[in-house]
Amino acid sequence: MLALYTKYSTLACGPVFGGHIRGLAHDLRIYSQLTEDDNALDEAIDACRQVASHLDTGSSRWQDTQDELIDCFEVRYNETGDLAFLESAIDVYWDVLEHAPADSPTWDRFAANLATVLYRHSLHTTQSDTLDEAIRLLRPVLERTPQNTSDRQLRSRNLANILFCRYARANSISDLEESLWTYEELVLNTPLDDPQRESYRQALQQYWNRYLTNPETWIAQTNDQERVGDCSYAMSYDIECESCRQTFAFDIWLLVDGMVGSTPVNRGVG
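^ thats the sequence. predicted structure below, dont judge the formating
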């Protein structure tokens, strides 16, 4: 295979042959995953690098090739757990973002994916800068992502989880609040028949539990019953059983009753 790539490397800049080599790299990556053949994945990586070197930097074909190269690095990281491969993927992501038009769909897609990879990398370190960078990338992308789309759901969930991770490390209440509001928006804008909706609602409940039991939060200090009521509505309004819905909402109040002495009010939940 590598002999074939080398023989035709001077033609790699052509749209047809460059596409064929990129396709071969894709097939080699899939083959390596099915057979655990490390050599096939090495060949795929070499093929992507060779094609990219003969393409105009920043062109759509160059971006597609870099995308395939990122996939190869992530497969190798998943197989070995070696952070060097995840860092190689991160380097390629930054290279693509440097040459992609700012605020374009391409930039947004690579930036959102890079944020996720930075988050994965942060799980293996104690440094906060990768989480900071992931959040900085993802916030504006989410703002530009249309509501009621799968991209919006995925990016909202990822941002909320990254924020929560930073909160867990530094006890940053503002991060916890932003993750909470992000998940709340996600729940309220996800159709009731969406199979992912229940997992979003469970995550929202988990984040609210953490928020309501943290004595440093604004609700704990101000006894903001209105905001707690908003939470109980967001988490319970799609429960079909009337009594179950009221019980679920009341449980939210019980979480704060002993902490701030709040008294449940009837908000007409459901």
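The chain has a mean pLDDT of 78.
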